[in-house]
Design goal:
The chain has three helices and four strands; from the N terminus they run βαβαβαβ. The longest helix has 18 residues. The two termini are about 25 Å apart. Strand 3, helix 3 and strand 4 form a beta-alpha-beta unit. About 45% of the residues lie in helices and about 15% in strands. It has one domain: 3-Layer(aba) Sandwich (Rossmann fold). It is of the alpha/beta class. It has a four-stranded parallel sheet with strand order 2-1-3-4, sandwiched between helices. InterPro entries: DUF4406. This is DUF4406 domain-containing protein. It holds the Pfam family DUF4406.
Length: about 100
């Protein structure tokens, strides 16, 4: 199963983003076998805004499921990814705070 992780980027350093992502991946591997985590982290230095979101959506298009990290509701990009996941009937998992 290919899994995409949606998480807020605003006001977070690249290091914070990667730490949250790694914690989620560790938890996933404890509960699920035979999974592939899609590389959804796009470094802020490489791109930002709409271009960053469009690149994330391209990665999301290969996913079987999407996991939303805590705080996703406050992130415009995460909310857009959530809407896409709903519209395309993807398996959606929300992580608690």
């Amino acid at each position: 199963m290919k899994i995409y992780i949606s998480q807020p980027y605003a006001y977070k350093s690249d290091e914070e983003i990667v730490k949250v992502r790694n914690d989620i991946i560790k938890e996933l591997h404890a509960y699920m076998k035979d999974i592939e985590i899609l590389d959804s982290v796009i470094q802020k230095e490489q791109t930002f805004g709409l271009k960053q979101l469009s690149e994330s959506i391209l990665v999301l298009s290969d996913a079987d499921a999407i996991i939303f990290a805590p705080g996703w509701e406050e992130s415009r990009g995460c909310r857009i990814e959530h809407m896409i996941a709903e519209e395309f009937h993807m398996h959606i998992i929300h992580l608690g705070n």
